[in-house]
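1st attempt posting a full record on here, be nice pls
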Amino acid sequence: MTQPDIALTPAAAARVAAIAGRQNKPALLRLSVEGGGCSGFQYKFGLADAPEADDTVATTDQVALVVDSISLDLVRGASVDYVESLGGAAFRVTNPNAASGCGCGTSFAI
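the predicted structure (as tokens):
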């Protein structure tokens, strides 16, 4: 069985649906990777209006997660979750490609 390129957990899908509903936007979360952060690369999340031609799309509970082809090379096999803890609530990426990460969980190194 092959691992999906990217996955969205049900908890993350529910949170995206709630945010998109309040903002009258499609339930479409974009994950991209940019240079920067304390470990070299950082995750960036935002609502999107539609997938782009080169996007990979993962759907959970009618909510889509889209990742562009360049970012996908850095997060292939990853899972996006939504977690609430004493430190706050946030989307978290479990990335099997990351060799190290920072304490805040928003940046990583390969």
